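Forwarding the complex inputs:
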Amino acid sequence: MQGSRRDFLKLAGVTALGLSAATLGFLGEGAQAADALPMAADFANPLTAKRWAMVIDTAKLDDDTMDKCIHACHSFHNVPDIKGKQNIKWLWKDDFEATFPSERPDYLAEEVKKRDFLLLCNHCTNPPCVRVCPTKATFQRPDGLVAMDYHRCIGCRYCMAACPFGARSFNFQDPAPFIKEITPIYPHRTRGVVEKCTFCVEHLAQGKLPLCVEASEGAMIFGDLQDPNSDVRKVLKEKFAIRRKPELGTEPGVFYIL
Amino acid sequence: MYNAKFIIPGLIIFLALVLFPFVKGFGNPEMKVELEKPKNAKECILKTDQMRDSHMVLLNEWRDMALRDGKRVWTSPVDGKKYDISLTNTCLQCHEHKDKFCDKCHNEVGVDPYCFSCHNTSPVKKEGGK
Amino acid sequence: MLEKALKGSPRYFGALIACLAVMGIGGGFYLYQLNVGLTITGMSRDVSWGFYIAQFTYMVGVAASAVMLVLPYYFHHYKTYAKMIIMGEFLAIAAVIMCLGFVIIDIGQPQRALNMVLHPTPNSILFWDMIVLNGYLVLNAVIGWTSLMSYWKRMTPPSWVKPLAYLSIIWAFSIHTVTAFLYAGLPSRDYWLSAILAARFLSSAFCSGPAILLLLTLAIKKLTKFDPGKEAVKTLATTITYAMCVNVFFFLLEVFTSFYSNIPGHTDPIIFLFTGIEGHTYMTPFMWTATLLGLGSLFLLIPPKWRENREILVPALIMLVIGTWLDKGMGLIVGGFTPNPFDRVTEYLPTKPEVMIALMIYATGGFVLTILWKVALEVRAEVDGKL
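Prediction (whole assembly, three chains):
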């Protein structure tokens, strides 16, 4: 095949760019770096809490960082990339009106109007999804996490109807073809079950923070709400934070500093 | 007996159909499957005959222990070693190729466990192993 | 007694074969859904319940409506319903079977359905719905079959039938109340979060269910020699009319509370359904058709002279059934999920495979009903010498 020197240089340049981008972590922490196989010893010192919570300092997050957080979560947890209305998302971003629909702001500060917010499962203290699940496939752990047992889920989607925050997604079809790059040390789900953010329960068990918190460059703080000395309590004491739809009494565990 | 001329032949045909597999297989040698043993480990978490008999029970217990009870470490009664409770990361780490190990017995006895609809990657390989 | 279903006219077997054919075609689509997943439906992350659950809700109402006959007949010895009562109980059986069918085809992992029994969860209303629906099925099957069998053998029914019938009266109210509780206890869906939802369900059930029963009975009257009796038709039509008045009244109550309080969570779904939001107007034809048909049916049913005229009664009942079906079927489910928790609209319309699979369940109900009603009519013909 006749290739010119110009073509070869173009190809070499692109390849070099791609390799350096990957090593620079430009595309975010891919499955590559996180793929260390967990052994029994890794679970010797889990992070524990009486009630896990998260504070998101929305002013510190820009679009790129948010994309990194979302990519960190979705790529590790094998969340499929399905386009359209049957999509699946554990962590995503949206504007102020969608995040806080009960605010209905007439004259919103420019700063906040431009800003996007990270949305995820709020791991409520009073979760309506847990209340309605007929098989306890979604259940509340003693540490406040609202967990999913994909083995038991019958796919009735009652939890999706009950969640006031639209945090849950249903596998309308087999997700495997839609997972771009599978992380082999974490399973994916099958069709017919509901899934959502798990506050990285498998990372907490290894003493690590959730992936989005790690990727957020300090904008997301994670800790025990019932420990007065925890990071979340400290930041909540200093800054005023709101939660989504607090009037519903679900007591969400995700706070937003605007 | 009413309708004996239908019932007796019917019963005989029914018994013939039900007993046919046993009659056909009588005298066959014991089921043998060729399993590819893992390359990097000599011992499993339990003895082979224990695993063969009750690995499904163990996996069911593991499933609830890890996911529902938050217990992530299991101690083997055979040698006291601790293992991460994970089908993907413990079992499939050694038994890399599901089709050369797991499927061999499952296909022979005709079971189709749904575990593999999600846990079908081995942590050793980069792409999903099937 | 069941052997009476094995012999019949060509029309009878034609009806059975037609039902089986639809069950077969729908069954093929269902196999497709089992293989590929619920992606073949029009449901989405935002509208996660759709046509199947809408039919389930409507058929629970039809099942509960048998109480409109059972209560007068057993509690108040209203003998006028003597010929209709078994038809109503058998319709309830077919309706409950359809309800259970609609739930099974809707869940993502139907082979795990027994998880609800293996891991009972009393705090979940869906658990109680499973219990009350299956209980109602057993109740109606036992009461219906035993009373029909006793009638056939010209004996008085055993003494335990009556307490069971009384239980079934309470139980009928409970099945639709529990189904309403599925919706009315969710903090996430403002359109459903209303105490009156349970009352609306019951009122729409008590007009649509007996309307369906009456229409089917009048159809049977044309096909066989079965005559429910002028008085029975008159009383049932009157019951239907009162129930529809209450149904419309309750809806207007909802409209008042929503719009007088002007709370967006309450008004948005209704505005969306009847006028559309942000250009999404696909529901408005359904809702306005339902309104016109519902009010039109009342217009025809309220004047007694018209209600007692078969030529007017039948179209009025058909209008009522379609109107309530559109409102409780499509309107209820879509209105609950729209706007979504982010105040946006995701459109939902059932896909063709979805409709075919739903038709499979309807055909199953038709199949069961045809057989049960055949048995009842044959028994009556044998005992009375006439229908």
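DSSP finds ten helices and nine strands in chain A.
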